[in-house]
Amino acid sequence: MFYLSEYPENPSGYVTLSTSTDWEPWLNAVIPAGLHAGVTSRLRSNLKHILVGLEMKAALIVPHATRISNRAVLFEPYCQLLTFEFCVGVFSVCEGIGSALWLRSQNDDGAAAPRISPNNWIGSLVAAADPQGTLDFDIKMRGVKAVRDKIHQDQLGARTEIDWHAFDYNHAFVPANDALGIVLRLHAASVPANTNLG
Questions:
Q1: Contact residues for 51 (Cβ-Cβ < 8 A; gap 6+)
Q2: Fewest beta carbons within 10 Å, which of 47, 58, 111, 182?
Q3: For the whole model, what pTM was predicted?
């Protein structure tokens, strides 16, 4: 049996080690100064909860994929959906930090809520997290975006069939987790010590 909380017998499982509050120092370090206070507050609040949610998803996906207990942890279609959700969460974290970086590069505090194109925020995030391109962050981030974009169902006749097996561990989770790990290095000293991300 795989548990999501600690039991006296200490079976294989995941014990929540980070809280939303534990992510605030990292977010305070990577969200650039000079944004409107309300923008900074909303961004911090949104991303700290997403990050804790990503930890829980990773705690289910990794043992399922690696068969840590020699058994499947999840029903396979749910694992694929959970992997998709993980990619959406990573995209959201990267979009938030990248957008904040782009706003500051434009001397914009974000108060007017401008729409920021993916190329702009991804470019700003790549410049901060992988300026030499040695980590292939741009490729990984665009891969995460491609998985995230599969949520759209409004032009079925204009697109190829969605292959749910594209949401597997090696093709979706690992690159997304790697991309998040690169972003976490923006201020590695502030990342919660016990996180299972990156």
A1: 18, 20, 23, 93, 197
A2: 111
A3: 0.87
